[in-house]
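Protein modeling request. Please complete all fields; requests missing the sequence field cannot be processed.
Requester role: graduate student
Desired output: 3D structure, token encoding
Chains: 1
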Amino acid sequence: FIQFEGVLYGYDLYVNGKYVGSWSSSFNAVRFNITDFVDFTGENILAVKVSTRVKGYEFDTNDCWSLSGIYRPVSIYITPNLFIDDYTVETTINATQSKAEVKVNYSLQNVKKERFENVLIKGILHAPDKKTFEKIVSVQSLNGVLSFEIDDPLLWTAETPSLYQLELILIDGKKVIQQKTQNVGIRQIGIDHSVLKLNGTPIKLRGVNHHDLVPETGRTLTNEQILRDLKLMQRANINFIRTSHYPPDCRMLDMCDSLGIYVVCEVPFGGGDKHLTDSTYLDNL
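Delivered output (285 residues):
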């Protein structure tokens, strides 16, 4: 697979002169399966044709500089034929905050449609206080759930950004064929009579709008630049970021988790309803 984290504004992908696919949502990551296009015995040529006038480009030029190009990381990676395709982590807390549930909804992909037997998914949750929780389930279908019951959970807030580390391990027989890790904050968000609450406690958001943009490198940010911005905000007593108007670099979200910053992650739909139909797009060409 090859994965692009962000390209302004759309592009076509070719491997060894053959068309692989295209994408035109500048701030959302996408991956392509390039197995059938790769020459595993020699060198390969990867080509990306970037355009600034793809369908829907108006969404991604909303309220910002119209820079273009490959501005976020690109990675190539391999998987087994049966692999963890996606997963979502949900956390819930009981009324007394004495117990929590960490539920992992996962989906697998079976590329070659092979029969699989004796396949397990093992989940390990490492707590900040070094406690460890384990759960193993037998894979019976391509979708399933792992669930952890946690006593006396260490809850995530901006003031106490406690993070657990989740490991997901896919096992075929006795062989580990894939492993993923993810930081998890145990917290529950709700609205009670128009009052925003985190873990049952009212909170106040002191926030700013944020753009992925620096004078020197445009939309391409280093780890140091992202961290400097976040720490500057915290020194100004800011605890909340609105990612105007698009999903940010995933590294920023990870840093917000560890530093203790609330985030509202926006979808990249600016420019109004006039850009939501094909006819309007064609009329504007």
